[in-house]
């Protein structure tokens, strides 16, 4: 429509116009013909988009900008909580930027690219790592002994750091080498971009090379250079109007032709890197681990609220309710909380949850320190327990809660001058987190002894303060955090099995998928309500370990030139990660019958 074409027109130039009815704009960015498969020319906007500074960004065609902007405002505007997405620039002008994973998917939103300073980067790392795992660590210390637990925890930390360094090196190698240019915020192979550019050149060849005038006397413009021909009355030329329509149609056609894998990796980040290095199976492996981890954490939330809710009802109202009815009631509440389609909806609830968790952890730590000061350490504390040490191996990996996929968006969210130092900031922050976790778990274990419950809040005094209040606060935090934790899973489910949100039937189908996810997880929680310790261990060994120890070295092998030493260390880490995954998974499943929470 003419209104759309007029709105898309650039501002009129301040220079005086010629008296002629039309004036041909100089063609920029044009070059000799390029054969298919040849490297992109140096001046192409795809190559420039990778290295240009924010002050001098390359500019694609006006038609392509507006068609992409139109796509953003519909099905592509919402970023995936764990898997990234696409979005327009904040100022609403030209160009595209990759949207970061909300990884956090899990624990909060990561800021827009290039906005985080030092303090914000540290806080974002804390939010992306700290979760419910800290509440299960004291019981893990009882399973492994205080010395065995500390050893496993810090060995897991060093292995995690090695995987993160390999992941970042692979990312920097790809970005510096230019193998993975960013178009609309996603990862696509260079050959795909070249083929797409040639298709675009064929579609618009008549407009770019034509020197004839339109019936209205206005010359067609060079679309790919971003020049827009403006008529004397301020309107768009007929050639530009047709170009915008063709651009929009071509963009919609490309969007409709994307496969499920294309949509899964278009947010870039961890999944995009896995796709580039390992192919389709790498994407599915990364998504399997991430989705399993998210679902598992939601599963533990059901059990956590049921256990604490049972004690709260007994304390405040004097009534006794079973764990399974409380899980059903929790699922009914989460059905309504999980229906929103925008991650921005959960900003307030995420803030409430984060503040509640910090408050509760400080109170629990204060209770443990007070108990140690009054009565000393428990008599049944041991240094090492070999027979149940394997349970804590999974818990130690679960501590990081799949933070590896969030490393890339965390780095991209940092300001440019901090990105070179990001790995040091990230590693030191993770070391601080592990140290605080160790102190918290060790003090709780020393105070409450070997019979400490899997959920440490159940060990608090049964009085109103601090016991009941802390349990209530933590239940509220978990309740409002559940929808954000499940959001990445619902995005993947809707992407694979869902319909179009623009249609009534598609929205209904997507809502049914969300309700089904909440219900299935609640059903599993009802069946395994007394196996929380083994659920946590299984999540750590089967989901967190491959994300941190197996996939990053494999990506490094494929994307970075290897020396013999580097190749050996990478493969040794992969083998070690596979052994940890298989052995601890087998032992955890074999002893499932002895699980108790």
TrEMBL record:
<feature type="transmembrane region" description="Helical">
    <location>
        <begin position="535"/>
        <end position="555"/>
    </location>
</feature>
<keyword id="KW-0812">Transmembrane</keyword>
<keyword id="KW-1133">Transmembrane helix</keyword>
<dbReference type="InterPro" id="IPR013057">
    <property type="entry name" value="AA_transpt_TM"/>
</dbReference>
<feature type="region of interest" description="Disordered">
    <location>
        <begin position="1"/>
        <end position="65"/>
    </location>
</feature>
<feature type="transmembrane region" description="Helical">
    <location>
        <begin position="468"/>
        <end position="490"/>
    </location>
</feature>
<feature type="transmembrane region" description="Helical">
    <location>
        <begin position="422"/>
        <end position="448"/>
    </location>
</feature>
<feature type="domain" description="Amino acid transporter transmembrane">
    <location>
        <begin position="268"/>
        <end position="589"/>
    </location>
</feature>
<dbReference type="GO" id="GO:0015179">
    <property type="term" value="F:L-amino acid transmembrane transporter activity"/>
</dbReference>
<protein>
    <recommendedName>
        <fullName>Amino acid transporter transmembrane domain-containing protein</fullName>
    </recommendedName>
</protein>
<feature type="transmembrane region" description="Helical">
    <location>
        <begin position="388"/>
        <end position="410"/>
    </location>
</feature>
<feature type="transmembrane region" description="Helical">
    <location>
        <begin position="351"/>
        <end position="368"/>
    </location>
</feature>
<feature type="transmembrane region" description="Helical">
    <location>
        <begin position="281"/>
        <end position="304"/>
    </location>
</feature>
<feature type="region of interest" description="Disordered">
    <location>
        <begin position="81"/>
        <end position="103"/>
    </location>
</feature>
<feature type="compositionally biased region" description="Low complexity">
    <location>
        <begin position="7"/>
        <end position="23"/>
    </location>
</feature>
<keyword id="KW-0472">Membrane</keyword>
<feature type="transmembrane region" description="Helical">
    <location>
        <begin position="567"/>
        <end position="589"/>
    </location>
</feature>
<feature type="transmembrane region" description="Helical">
    <location>
        <begin position="316"/>
        <end position="339"/>
    </location>
</feature>
<feature type="transmembrane region" description="Helical">
    <location>
        <begin position="511"/>
        <end position="529"/>
    </location>
</feature>
<dbReference type="Pfam" id="PF01490">
    <property type="entry name" value="Aa_trans"/>
</dbReference>
<dbReference type="GO" id="GO:0016020">
    <property type="term" value="C:membrane"/>
</dbReference>
<feature type="transmembrane region" description="Helical">
    <location>
        <begin position="144"/>
        <end position="165"/>
    </location>
</feature>
<feature type="region of interest" description="Disordered">
    <location>
        <begin position="199"/>
        <end position="224"/>
    </location>
</feature>
